[in-house]
Amino acid sequence: MKSFEVNFDGLVGPTHNYGGLSFGNVASQSNSQQASNPREAALQGLEKMKALMDMGFVQGVLAPQERPDVAALRSLGFAGTDAQVIERAAKEAMPLLVASCSASSMWVANAATVSPSADTADGRVHFTAANLNCKYHRSIEHPTTSRVLGAMFADSQHFAHHAALPAVAQFGDEGAANHTRFCREYGEAGVEFFVFGRSAFDSRYPAPQKYPARQTLEASQAVARLHGLSEEGVVFAQQNPAVIDQGVFHNDVIAVGNGELLFHHQDAFLNTEQMLAELHGKLAARGANFQSISVPRDQVAVEDAVRSYLFNSQLLSRADGSMLLIVPEECRSNPRVWQYLQGLTTAGGPIREVKVFDLKQSMQNGGGPACLRLRVALNETELAAVNPGVILTPALYDTLTAWVNKHYRDALRESDLADPQLLLECRTALDELTQILKLGAVYPFQIN
Ligand code: SUG
Question: What's one Pfam family here (predicted)?
Fold first, then answer.
């Protein structure tokens, strides 16, 4: 049976703004308070989705969340009509209003961890929504994420959904941003690679000093158990705490994997040799020929990797067996990174082509091409069981582009977030979107 890796990209929501909300994420902190352009952000994302579709990849769409999140503000004690809730939050606690308006759900690599059916004990595709509890503005995403994923992957014969892990730092879980799957073919059993930043219960593991390690070992282990993964099918590895302190807040800022290949920075991990040997051995047992490309620090410094998002790229398998790397424009404007990439594609290795996309609106909040997509490996039967409304077609692309142009503002500043009209605009847009994507009622304003 044929199998595919389907990329579901997060559609940027109408409140996309620069709130400076993510301590440890250099771009989010340095662009705080700049005016954003939500329309441009959403169109940039759609361009990338269309380009992949046009290249023959199966491409899906993941809906944004309801923002401002009035229900979250109510749970913090703001009361009255919806307009009054927003007005009071703006007057008394602006940072909470900003957090409740974040369009951060666009970075769907953080929505969930996904294990394909070939890896799981019950032969279903498993999803665990990420609790994202390191940052308040992201911790409020998972209930809607679960509803949206449930509406996209509804058939319980093929899909199993797990609620987010306990909402405490000891089980901090950032989803697929710290998870990669290696395999020979997408439909064959693979090895799932979980990368954590610290251990919550075992002090022998070092931790970063300056910035938070968002993913714990215990969270990764819990997800592997929930998904019914076998010991032969998992490898756990620790991120180098020193790179977290340089702004690598998720492992997908310093490494990306696909098929039989891991593309990573020399300084990405602790105990790299041992980890690579384990991956090699476990993949060999599955008939796969694991390879890695380590980018040396004297060619690309960690700082260049963080600024350019070289590793926050999409590594895609093409029909001829070669790989394509989708990178953000910031890689081309960094001379060292661009030079490295020129050498990489001509070296006779698996990565033969680089394609560049302008994702500046998302990049300025620390979200590159890989952050914007959730990968779901599916066989033909499973793909047929996915809600067809969320699979991108030329017609859906046109509809979504028109929808964005109709509903989105082209400038948003912090002061605009207090405008009660913005809430109405967002709800009108999202109500229409659930019809376009055939999701049913998934948003709090549609349910309550
Ligand atoms: O969680 N930025 C996101 C970026 C997530 C990137 N995802 C991956 N690497 N997979 C974060 O830090 C910034 C929001 C603001 O400051 O307005 C933000 O949430």
Answer: AstB
Which residues are annotated binding-site positions? Answer: 19-28, 110, 137-138, 214, 252, 365
Domains assigned to the chain? 3-67+102-447 (3.75.10.20)
Residue nearest to atom 6 of ligand 1 (CA): 367
What pTM was computed for the model?
0.98
Q: In the annotation, is 188 catalytic?
A: no
Task: With beta carbons less than 8 A apart as the criterion, state whether 193 and 210 touch.
Answer: no
Structure confidence by residue, pLDDT tens digits, 233-285: 999 999 999 999 999 999 999 999 999 999 999 999 999 999 999 999 999 99
Pocket residues: Cβ below 6 A from ligand 1: 18-22, 25, 28, 102, 104, 107, 109-110, 138, 177, 249-250, 252-253, 365-367, 371
Gap from CA of 362 to ligand 1 centroid (Å): 9
Among 426, 433, 413, 408, residue whose Cα is nearest residue 40 = 408
Strand 291-295 to strand 373-379: parallel, antiparallel, or no bridges (unpaired)?
unpaired
Distance (Å) of CA 128 to CA 121, 173, 342:
15, 10, 38
* Residues ≥6 apart with Cβ < 8 Å to 324: 55, 315, 316, 318, 351, 352, 353, 354, 355
What are the distances in angstroms from CA 32 to CA 102, 252, 445? 12, 22, 29
Encoded tokens for 305: 């990797």
Cα-to-centroid distance, 98 and ligand 1 (Å) = 14
Is the per-residue pLDDT at 425 higher than 80? yes
Which band of pLDDT confidence, cut at 50, 70 and 90, is reported for residue 138?
Answer: very high
- Angle 94-101/82-92 helices, nearest 10 degrees? 130
Backbone angles phi, psi at 65, to 5 degrees: -105, 165
Residue 309's contacts (CB-CB under 8 Å, 6 or more residues apart) are 253, 327, 328, 330, 331, 363, 368, 369
Nearest ligand 1 atom, CA 109: 10
Radius of gyration of the chain (CA): 21
State the amino acid at position 414 in one-letter form: E
Question: What is the band of 448 on the pLDDT scale with cuts at 50, 70, 90?
Answer: confident
pLDDT (0 to 100) of residue 25: 95
Residues 6+ apart with CB under 8 A from 331: 308, 309, 310, 313, 337, 338, 341, 354, 356
Give the C-alpha separation, 147 to 156, whole Å.
14
Pairing of strands 234-238, 191-196: parallel
The packing angle between helices 420-436 and 82-92, to 10°, is 130
3-state secondary structure of 181: strand
